Amino acid sequence: MEDGKHRSIDYLRISVTDRCNLKCVYCMPEGDISCLEKEEVLSFEEIIKVCKSAAKLGIKKIKLTGGEPLVRPDFVSLVRQIKAVEGIEEITLTTNGLLLEKQLEDLIEAGISQINISLDTLDPKHFKEITKVDGLDKVLAAIHKAAHSDLKRVKVNALVAKHLNEEAICALAQLAQHDAIHVRFIELMPIGLGKQFERIGKEEIIAILEEKFGILKPYKGKLGNGPAQYWEIEGFKGKIGFISAVSECFCDACNRIRLTADGFLKLCLHSKAGLDVKHLLRSGISQEELTRLIGEAIHYKPEKHHFGDAPREEDEDKIMAQIGG
Asked: Domain Radical SAM core, which positions (predicted)?
């Protein structure tokens, strides 16, 4: 399947809930936030219907996200159902890790092949300052267990920003030293609460790492479905990755679409463009017609994001918690 710019679209990210058991300072606002009511969230049956249409259009890879996906009851059942959809070749998961350790074996058995675990510091006090929760020990236990499991890949995603966690960069990178864990440093995007932080660029992080560990060498291989660029450090079992959506725009090679928890098919993270799939599903649309309309929508996927440009009416104004990770 190609969009109107001849990009191959084979990757669907599905947010199964907007609820999370953390309140990270760059994602969740202070105080209570209004989460979706249960009936506003797509049911498993509705998600599977979307997956079937997506697979017919050429989607091969599914990423399950939230909020925190593991807070959704009976989540493992959804994984099994997606795995059974003809044409879906890989299902991966992004999680904050708090609930992962106890569910890991069931998730692997159900069909999860790769897990990305979000972690921004290895200091317990700093972890609580960023997330508003005590729980670093649970996340680290989950990472260790995942690294020694049958998963194809384990990745740690670290959002980095000035005056947030730059002092944690080297410690986070060391997670890749003794285990085959790939640590990715993600440039904070100016969406929602992320606008209040100053980005740290890839070159600055590389300089910090090289001062501590020696030369980083570019890695030519591919380690997943996304746009990360990977580097190697001598003596490290895992790779160091960078996702720099703002400073190194990779929109010309974007292969993904997103389904929000409330059933909106987003064609670009930074755009309101898309399709109200929930309305179609609850109006009794047939599988064939749903497939056709999703295909038509994908043709109009925006050419690129507009981070750094003057605000436009069509730019996304929701926070990341509402969009999905």
From this structure: 4-227
Structure tokens at 311: 């605000």
Tell the burial category of 180 from Cβ atoms under 10 Å away from its Cβ (0-12, 13-18, 19+): middle
**Numbered residues of the known binding site for GTP:** 13, 94, 155, 256-258
Instruction: Determine the Cα–Cα distance for residues 29 and 26; give it in Å rounded to an integer.
Output: 8
Q: Which two tokens stand for residue 237?
A: 């079992």
Task: Supply the DSSP symbol for 316.
Answer: -
Question: CA nearest 117: which of 100, 104, 137?
Answer: 100
Rounded CA-CA distance 305/288 in Å is 31
Question: pTM of the full predicted structure?
Answer: 0.91
Residue 271 CB neighbours (<10 A): 18
Q: Which residues are annotated as a binding site for [4Fe-4S] cluster?
A: 20, 24, 27, 251, 254, 268
E strands in the chain: 11-15, 61-65, 90-95, 112-118, 153-162, 181-187, 198-199, 216-218, 229-233, 240-243, 256-259, 264-266, 274-276
Asked whether the predicted pLDDT for residue 138 surpasses 90, the reply is: yes
Tell me the per-residue pLDDT of 240-265, one tens digit each, with 9 for 90 and over: 999 876 666 667 778 999 999 999 99
Enumerate the domain spans of the chain: 11-323
225 band by pLDDT with thresholds 50, 70 and 90: confident
Q: Is domain 11-323 given the CATH code 3.40.50.720 in the classification?
A: no
- pLDDT score recorded for residue 318: 62
CB 120 within 8 A of CB 160: yes
Per the annotation, binding residues are 13, 20, 24, 26-27, 67, 94, 118, 155, 189, 251, 254, 256-258, 268
**Which pLDDT score, from 0 to 100, does residue 227 have?**
76
| Percent of residues, the chain, with pLDDT higher than 90 | 71
